[in-house]
Fold this protein.
Amino acid sequence: MSTIQRDMSLTGQPPASINAIQKLGTALGVAGLLILLLAAFNVHFPEKPLWLTIALGSLFGGILIFTYGAYSGKHEGIKNDGVWFKSVSSRGFLAWVAGLALTGFYIILYFKAGWLGLNTEGENTGLIALFDPLSRLLSGNPASQWFVYGTLYTIAILAFGIKFIWKYRHNRYERLRTLSVMFFQTAFAFLIPEFMARLNSENFNLPYYDLKNIWPLNYYNFEQYRVNDFISAGNVGLALLLFGIASIFVITPILTYKYGKRWYCSWVCGCGGLAETAGDSFRHLSDKSTFAWKVERWVVHSVLVFVVVMTTAVVSTYLGYDADKYWLTKDVFLIGVAVFLTLLFAGIWFFKKEELKQDARYGAIGYLVIVLALIGIHYSSGSTLFLIPAETLRTSYGFLIGSIFSGVIGTGFYPIFGNRVWCRFGCPMAAILGLQQRLFSKFRITTNGGQCISCGNCSSYCEMGIDVRAYAQKGENIVRASCVGCGICSAVCPRGVLKLENGATDNRINSREILLGNDVDLMDYVNQN
């Protein structure tokens, strides 16, 4: 039989069906999901610890076996494994099924936890009861829907993290940052808060605290009940409260200045961790159009403005006017916020006017909205903001941003909109770190335009919708507020054109002047370096 390849297709053949090892992994993973699904339908499992171990072990083991089948026989390096030929990674039928299934799970988890067996007045049943043994082992308390969510979330990051490391095993940076997000999710987001719950008693109570969540991501951290719990917990609670404040004004700016927003978005954050690991197969689906970029800028910064106003409003609602009782009155707090924002905006405008350019008007609009909101808060009563009950505004924000956007859409729509839809369009933490990164950070991605062959891998795999190739072709530094520094563009480049660097801020943004030689003494520039 002839072995001559007569196909004249430029794109090659669609990928072969999954091999036997991958089928075994898929079957094992489906078996684990089936156990969880049966538990959700109140099928009784007499030995819950055993069946929970089997279910979670099957999920974890199935992903690892599938990974082994996918990458064990391949050389190191990134390959375009026909992602646009596969239904699940090309917005095909399986992608929509997966998206709807994930979205449905999140909706039930957030709003119909009783369907999963949650019972706040008695013993849990169904799926949540299956997780009771693990919850009691860690915290001493029965499971909740959030414990179930946290467990599955952590299993996903760990298992898909191993898959990610194997796929990108040729790149040391990718291996290290993936190990980092696996560690922070397991230790800081999952185990430590559960262990902290064991410290609680009638006289000592700490609110659930994910130590890696920083304002404005944890917009609820300064609500009155949490502040009261921190203060009532003595030195430990006060230290956690002060740590939360220091994270905003000290820790975050310093780390972002030195390393860019990647230190958080790609090395620490749980949302980013899930996007990078479980969502890696969908990163090429991120919209690269100019329209998407414009929508992204308006939406994400509107969320940031809203969370600043809401946090200020929340704090102001439990502050009084009597200066004889408390030095921090409502008036002092609002004036302090206004002065701080005025000085911050004036400083940025004065020292970074060239970098801002057309973005300055967005900042001016945001600042104006905040100032007007502060005036409105000042003339509102203690429990009403803008003629709306304060609690209604808080719960509405938590519902729309904290639940619908970050959970249901942000994760459930991975197979449709890409893996970073929440980070691009909704995360206020990403917005504020992005502003710091663009204006003050040393971080940039340098390019060697002479080596670029315009293959487009970098742009295709940029999960934040940045047209990386356009920068690489011109040899221009990539300095974008939205860039999370994941480094995938560099990892998939076949020519080594892209490099993640932390250097001096001189000519960091206006690098095209050096490339083109406009108004620059090139020999003087070379001698300086």
